[in-house]
């Protein structure tokens, strides 16, 4: 299996997950032009993308979804309540491109398990994406990018994934000392907002297992966080636990805001 973020942050989010030459997009919050360009930077042909899953309806996750689906003639997977929000604005689609998702679905040879997150949208979801590998059995990639708290559903779905793309949105001190208005600070730090660096680290302590090799920190705030601070905070908490000693091969990286992360290819072991 492989994965990469195409863009990450409040200006737009998109992630590609796949195996061989079959791929699924998780969100498409950047333009059609940017989506195609960023895929090309990873040597992924648009013809190798077979569908788009929508985690929630906020514009930084759905900006380009209609245009991309029409251009590539691929289906969009979303919950019924998210479709209620998308339908008035997404533009013309064929009926077969509107796929309603409940708990799970299959696309591009991938099995996708959907689980709820806690965000101030109509509904919001993360995914655990699995595929059978020839030599090592099943591999799993977990994605959770917008949530104010870590839920039991997240614990169950993300535990033991081979790779994770997870939110490290803000540093608490930077947020409260920053220039955002009070209502926005409360929204971001609340139960339906975004995860703070140390919150995510506490989650990682429970999710990382022996097969976990790659973690990508995503959806960083441009004003209330920095890549260096997110990495140092999370690494410090992990190193103070048994996790670092028991899992020395885990690698943490930060997703770039506008450009794609290098393609991560999970080894078969």
Automatic annotation (TrEMBL):
Pfam families: Lactamase_B_2. The keyword Hydrolase applies. Residues 11-194 form the Metallo-beta-lactamase domain. SMART domains: Lactamase_B. Coiled coil: none annotated. PANTHER family: EXODEOXYRIBONUCLEASE WALJ, METALLO-HYDROLASE YYCJ-RELATED. This is Metal-dependent hydrolase, beta-lactamase superfamily I. It comes from Desulfitobacterium dichloroeliminans (strain LMG P-21439 / DCA1).
């Amino acid at each position: 299996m492989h994965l990469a973020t195409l863009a990450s942050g409040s200006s737009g989010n998109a992630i590609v997950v796949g195996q061989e030459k079959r791929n699924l997009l998780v969100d498409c919050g950047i333009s059609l032009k940017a989506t195609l360009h960023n895929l090309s930077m990873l040597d992924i042909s648009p013809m190798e993308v077979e569908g788009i899953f929508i985690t929630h309806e906020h514009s930084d996750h759905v900006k380009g979804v209609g245009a991309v689906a029409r251009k590539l003639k691929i289906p969009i997977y979303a919950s019924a309540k998210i479709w209620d929000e998308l339908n008035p604005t997404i533009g013309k689609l064929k009926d077969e491109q509107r796929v309603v998702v409940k708990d799970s679905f299959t696309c591009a040879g991938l099995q996708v398990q959907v689980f709820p997150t806690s965000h101030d949208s109509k509904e919001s979801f993360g995914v655990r994406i699995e595929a059978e590998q020839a030599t090592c059995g099943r591999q799993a990639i977990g994605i959770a990018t917008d949530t104010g708290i870590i839920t039991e559903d997240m614990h169950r779905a993300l535990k033991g994934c081979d790779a994770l793309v997870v939110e490290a949105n803000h540093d608490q001190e930077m947020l409260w000392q920053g220039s955002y208005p009070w209502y926005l600070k409360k929204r971001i730090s609340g139960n339906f907002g975004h995860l703070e660096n140390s919150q995510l680290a506490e989650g990682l302590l429970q999710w990382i297992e022996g097969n976990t090799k790659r973690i990508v920190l995503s959806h960083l705030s441009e004003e209330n966080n920095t890549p260096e601070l997110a990495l140092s905070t999370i690494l410090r908490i992990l190193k103070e636990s048994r996790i670092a000693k028991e899992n020395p091969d885990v690698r943490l990286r930060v997703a770039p805001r506008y450009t794609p992360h290098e393609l991560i290819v999970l080894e078969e072991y």
